[in-house]
Write a structure and sequence with these properties.
Layout lengths: L3 E8 L17 H8 L2 E3 L2 E2 L5 H10 L3 H4 L15 H7 L3 E7 L13 E6 L31 E2 L3 H22 L6 E10 L4 E2 L1 H4 L22 H8 L10 H31 L6 E7 L18 H4 E2 L1 E4 L6 E3 L3 E2 H11 L12 H6 L8 E5 L8 E6 L2 E6 L5 E4 L17 H14 L2 H18 L3 H5 L13
Parallel strand pairs: 1-7, 1-9, 2-12, 3-13, 4-5, 4-7, 6-8
Antiparallel strand pairs: 2-11, 3-10, 9-11, 14-15, 15-16, 16-17
Helix pairs in contact: 2-10, 4-10, 5-8
Amino acid sequence: MSRNLLILMSDEHQARAMGCAGHPFVQTPHLDALAARGMRFTEAYTPSPICVPARASFATGRYAHQQRLWDNAMPYTGQPRGWGHQLQERGIAVESIGKLHYRYDDDDAGFDVEHMPMQVVGGHGMVWASMRREGERKIRDGRMLGDYIGPGTSKYTEYDARVTARTVDWLTQRGAQEGTAPWCLYVGLVAPHFPLIAPPEFLDLYPPEMMPEVKLHPSTGYRRHPWAEAQNANMDSEAKFRDPEERLMAMRCYYGLTSWLDQNVGLILQALEDAGLAGDTTVVYTSDHGDNVGARGLWGKSQMYQESTAIPMIMAGPGIARGTCATPVSLIDLSQTLAEHFGGHLADSPGENLYAIARAPDAPERVVFSEYHATGSISAGYMLRRGRWKYHYYVGFPPELFDLHADPEELVDLGQDPTHAAIRAELHAALCAIVDPEAANAQAFADQDALIARLGGPEKAFNMGASGATPPPEA
């Protein structure tokens, strides 16, 4: 096992949008090279398909319902203590560069130093989105994906460039120090998160004729599941495109930003090599959640489908075998792994060590879990993956069931098929072994109601927080 850890986390990177994952046209040569010299976990998932809860769960190794950090107005504060604190207690240098999406810069979040951290707006985040009941939700003006979609630079691409440059400098300086003690560096990049503005040279990699037909688009007669329909109705990005050409540009920009992200990963990994640190450093690449990229007429995350809940996860370094691992895993497992790499352990985490999972034979029946109690959802949504089956349970709505072996694109919902009643019951029991879905749903609403009241009520809450992408810190 290596002495050091380098964790690279992007934002909103769909698991399949990598060459090494078999995507037919996405260009990610640096991530592909990382996967070729390490282990790619092919069935990795987020614990919650939205930024702040996913990152809070990553910080602690606990599910959203365990720590009651439900949505983008409930950021991590440093409590409960997480993997970073475990490293600090053992004298390991642990620092961050870039996006965290926690509460305040001066919270004790488990880092010795936070370089140019991106946190939630005002320490409170998107309070308006905590109002979720049908009839109480209000739609903010503007478009979630941004007023402009197309070639150029944005505050996010500028921020990623600065984060990358700071990381290169950090690694260069660390490599120049003789007798360096073990260290852990977390790097948070924001691409390919919207706004969908891509540097032209990366956008040009994806000409319009390369874009595929969209899966299950409502214009073809597909009818969204009623929970998905209700969630999407709160901020219907698909309906706000000015014309079909802009919608096509949005797809191109997402993939262009994915290649922009890949370039920054490559610059960081080259700096690690140039600093003489690659031989003694384990590198992990992952993302907080995925993106629908137009499938089912959906954009952003916030859904239980593969596009939104599945994430990339690659681990490479000394002693790590090369290949793929088909055991289902999640960011919860990565949290435990980071703690245990340096001899710690997250006692209240259900996560398991990825090193051990990677060394063992594939265990496809292992259960992973995700949940959503945030923007637009009028009730809780839950996802359970076990073996070939993927089960979605929505409080107050019919379930969905997909056979990912026979139907990897989730085209055929078996949630009402009487011949699958037994497996649905079995999976629901497995879900209830993790969470009481109705109780967690009620607790989330109660906690969100209390938050809104504490901050001055619905009218004031409606004007709190960014309407879409969180602004990055100034240079």
